[in-house]
Structure to design on (758 residues):
């Protein structure tokens, strides 16, 4: 997973180097990243709730280290491949938030569990629990397991209180499994733009979680960990008092999607954009537009379009004009010279990061560090 | 650019291994790939036209080698980073189809030009031509250059006959540049689904190219190479007699986008789908649907949705339910067991390939080879 730092390494520590990168290049503003990490850590400490940031957003060992140094109990990974990379990078406490299925992957899960002090997996099916126990037995290492609960997204997770209790009991009695609690992530809630509407939807979703916690306690299986929430609901979910661990990930970077959501009751921006894509004008032959080198292989295309943070006149827009081409849309009479450098806010941070080998970490206008996107494409 | 073959290497040559991969996994059907490569090579040979397949579709040295072995004159790359990888991999004849701008990248372009026998770049601006000449002079190696011509896409390229002639003359008289001809790619034409409508639009676009060729000839600058066309227009552009080199790329794999287009006058499929994404059912708790491990980080999201090629009941659909989650939509009463393996046709091949480290090359049901996506994310 060690990757070369790429063609921009020659610019490290050079004055004004931020604006001279070979593009498209992924940029992290270190001051803002540090501020975002500190703010979330401070919030969780003040609320006396554990923070386990989701590494699927950044896939970067160095950012995991910084989050843990700031107080996080560990990290989340979305995939087994991410967890393998992070474990090999020295991260000792990892929750894999997706069910792991298929004999090849279940074997690998047991192996990575045996390699670090604390790995936690999730399951939502009795057949899967059985296979996980068998794989843990094969390497003689107990696996901690959460029951994955559906609270309304209709994706993974058990769909009834009865199924949750059944699986928890199965885990509790399996010789090589340890019942660790419940995961309840409401992905469908994260991007409801209005705070009050999001809070109301989260309240409704939480009734499922409440019922499961009650039923588990009645069965003598009080969940040690109740984990969930994202950047859109962490503050709301904390208030409800059901969770003791938050999984938010996008807060480290923010993006165009989250910038549109009111994360806080007063709507104020709690975190600032720390992730940008830098691109260069490679063709400028038409009035009112300029063609750049960052197209749909340089940005996530599942969400909103990129917005322009700097380098173009106010009001300029961005659109994709091909796999490797973007277009800055200017007002009539405006133009951008060939070679002009533009920085865009990433449209959806997680899949944007997954398109790059490296982060170019800037301090002001200077390229200060280059970090690897270590778990890029690791499934 | 040498990448580890990944966790599925243990399955090489095992019977039925195609259906036991750790997923999501990119699959290439070797029989179909070879047939597609041979068909396009045969077509170009019969038409006495050069083929220079676009490597942006596959980013794979091994596939370049096979295309050249089948008769291609060389390859196209969309980015300088791709060209660097391919040159280091032994590919000697490379056309970079996008203008290269910015001093860092222009210096790298001159360096890679000095490292292989035949590199060709494109330009559409006098300032860029001047910078390219200076960079070529600095390494004392002449650079071949095409004038990039806009034939209606409004992206890169010169927009007038006069500008084309001006730049061609500038190249011709620059001491370290060689005028190599014209590039005219009509990206806006490739996905007009109806053959006759696409042919009519291509005919209209070609008048711009015709006028430029005439004007260049009148100025004593007959273009040696006239290059362009894609999988959607190669047959039409060949008939028009203006091009002597085709740049089609997607034909090696095909995808959901091109499967909807009538590539041939009789509408028949000239090439077959060779590229698939394999995914596994990781949650099956709801009637009429199953959750898989291939979401919007496993497929291009700019085009149509993936279609299911095998592993699910006829009529099943696919949708994204998150970065790492997909959903197979089944008819009422149907279900798919946990661990079921599904293969989807890639929705848009180029940006789908860019999400993976490796190709899993299958011969029938056996994993026969693993190739690297060598130029993945190389900008």
């Amino acid at each position: 997973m060690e990757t070369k730092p790429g063609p921009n390494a020659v610019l490290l520590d050079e004055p004004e180097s931020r604006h001279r990168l070979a593009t498209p290049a992924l940029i992290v503003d270190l001051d803002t990243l540090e501020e975002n990490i500190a703010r979330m850590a401070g919030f969780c400490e003040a609320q006396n709730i554990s923070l386990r940031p989701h590494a699927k957003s950044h896939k970067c060992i160095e950012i995991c280290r910084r989050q843990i140094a700031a107080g996080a109990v560990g990290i989340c990974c979305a995939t087994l491949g991410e967890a393998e990379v992070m474990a090999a990078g020295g991260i000792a406490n990892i929750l894999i938030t997706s069910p792991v299925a298929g004999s090849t992957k279940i074997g690998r899960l047991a192996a990575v569990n045996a390699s670090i002090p604390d790995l936690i997996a999730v399951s939502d099916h009795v057949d899967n629990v059985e296979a996980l126990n068998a794989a843990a037995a094969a390497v003689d290492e107990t696996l901690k397991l959460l029951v994955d609960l559906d609270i309304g997204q209709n994706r993974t997770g058990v769909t009834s209180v009865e199924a949750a209790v059944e699986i928890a009991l199965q885990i509790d009695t399996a010789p090589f499994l340890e019942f660790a609690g419940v995961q309840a992530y409401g992905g469908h809630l994260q991007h409801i733009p209005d705070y009050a509407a999001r809070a109301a939807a989260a309240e409704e979703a939480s009734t499922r979680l409440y019922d499961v916690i009650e039923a588990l306690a009645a069965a003598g299986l009080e969940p040690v960990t109740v984990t969930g929430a994202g950047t859109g609901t962490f503050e709301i979910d904390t208030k409800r008092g059901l969770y003791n661990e938050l999984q938010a990930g996008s807060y480290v970077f923010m993006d165009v999607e989250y910038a549109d959501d009111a994360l806080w009751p007063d709507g104020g921006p709690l975190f600032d954009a720390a992730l940008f894509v830098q691109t260069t004008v490679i063709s400028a032959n038409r009035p009112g537009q300029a063609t750049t080198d960052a197209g749909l292989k340089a940005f996530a295309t599942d969400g909103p379009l990129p917005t322009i943070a700097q380098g173009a006149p106010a009001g300029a827009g961005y659109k994709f004009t091909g796999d490797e081409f973007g277009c800055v849309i200017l007002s009539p009479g405006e133009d951008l010279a060939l070679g002009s450098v533009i920085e865009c806010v990433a449209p959806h941070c997680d899949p944007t990061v997954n398109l790059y080998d490296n982060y170019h970490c800037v301090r002001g206008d200077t390229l200060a560090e280059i970090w690897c996107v270590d778990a890029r494409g690791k499934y």
Summary: Chain B has ten helices and 17 strands.
